[in-house]
Design brief:
Pfam families: Sigma70_r2, Sigma70_r4_2. It is built from 10 helices and no strands. It has 2 domains: about 1-80, RNA polymerase sigma factor, region 2, helix turn helix motif (Rna Polymerase Sigma Factor, Chain: A); about 95-180, Arc Repressor Mutant, subunit A (Orthogonal Bundle). The chain is mainly α.
Length: about 180
């Protein structure tokens, strides 16, 4: 692709100012040089969009600024991981497991005796204190504590939990809740 000599000269004339602007944006000479080069490449590729008689330097600065901001937004979402260690350390629990676990929990809760289920739901799920749950159920605090303990043990048995960390996986949030509840 050939470029009009006057356009080429005005692009070359603007290059030192583009470089200074790029350095002020990036604070990195190498990155700034890459940004200027990419700006000039885009300008050449889109030279038909430049309107003769307008300010070439302003047009180039706009391209450079837009490139910088696009790359900045992109880099904010990316993590440099050349050796793959960061990616290898990432793990996500499958999406379907919480739904299946919830179904299992519902089935197991339905198999508990009514008084144990009620006590466990008041204390474990609704967040009432033992004293508040005892008042709601109209019984002694010790009775509520006993019902909750028996309900937890029976739930673990019904759901075949033997080792909380192994059964619940690496999710630290679930583990912390189960240890607090247990």
């Amino acid at each position: 692709m050939s470029i009009d000599i006057d356009l080429r000269d005005s692009m070359l004339k603007a290059t030192p100012n583009l470089r200074a602007f790029a350095i002020s944006l990036t604070n990195n000479v190498d990155r700034a040089d890459d940004l200027v080069q990419e700006t000039l490449m885009r300008a050449i590729a889109n030279i038909d969009r430049f309107q003769p008689g307008t300010n070439m330097q302003a047009w180039l600065f706009t391209i450079l600024r837009n490139l910088f901001h696009s790359e900045y937004r992109k880099r904010r979402r990316e993590v440099e991981d050349a050796d793959g260690k960061y990616a290898a350390a990432l793990s996500v629990q499958p999406d379907q497991l919480p739904h299946l676990d919830f179904e299992d929990l519902q089935k197991a809760l339905a198999r508990l005796p009514h008084d144990q289920r009620e006590a466990l739901l008041l204390v474990g799920a609704s967040g009432f204190s033992y004293e508040q749950a005892a008042e709601i159920c109209g019984c002694a605090v010790g009775t509520i504590k006993s019902r909750v303990n028996r309900a937890r043990n029976r739930l673990a048995e019904l759901m075949h939990f033997t080792d909380m960390e192994e059964d619940l996986g690496p999710d630290r949030v679930i583990l912390s809740v189960m240890h607090a509840v247990a």
